[in-house]
Amino acid sequence: MSAPNDYLHCPLCGFEFIKQQSACERGCPLGKYCRLVCCPNCHYEFPPELRVVSWWRRLFAPAACPKPPRDLFSLSELNEGDHAELVRLTSEKVSRRNTLAIYGLVPGSRLVLQQKRPSFVIRVGETELALEADIAGELVVKRVAAEGAPNTTS
Amino acid sequence: MSASPTTQHPPAEQTLILVGNPNVGKSVLFSKLTGKFVIISNYPGTTVEITTGHSTFSGKTCAVIDSPGVNELAARTEDARVTCDVLRDHPEATLVQVADAKNLRRALLLTMQLAELKRPMVLVLNMMDELDKVGGHIDVRKLSELLGIPVVPTIAIARTGIHLLEKSLAQAAAPANLTASLKPQPPLSAATTNLPCQEEDYQQNIERLACINEILAQVYTRVRPRKPTFAQRLGWWATQPLRGTLLLALILYFTFWFVGLLGAGTFVNFFENAVFGRHINPIAIRVVDAALPFPHQHRHEASEYKLDIPLAPGRGIELFSSTQQVLSPAYTVEPGAAHGWWNAVIRFIHDFLVGEYGMITMALSYGFAIVLPIVTTFFLLFSVLEDSGYLSRLAVMVNRIFRAMGLNGKAVLPMVLGLGCDTMATMTTRILETRKERVITTLLLALAVPCSAQLGVLMAMTARVSWGAAVFWVALMVAIAFIVGWLAAKLHGGASSDFILELPPMRRPELGNVVVKTLARLEWYLKEVIPLFVLGTAILFFFDKLNLLEKITSFGEPIVTGWLGLPRETANAFLIGFLRRDYGAVYLLDAATGPNATLSPHQILVSMVTITLFMPCIATLFMIARELGKRTAAAITVFVFVFAFFVGGLVHHLGRWIGL
Question: ipTM of this complex > 0.85?
Answer without folding.
Answer: no
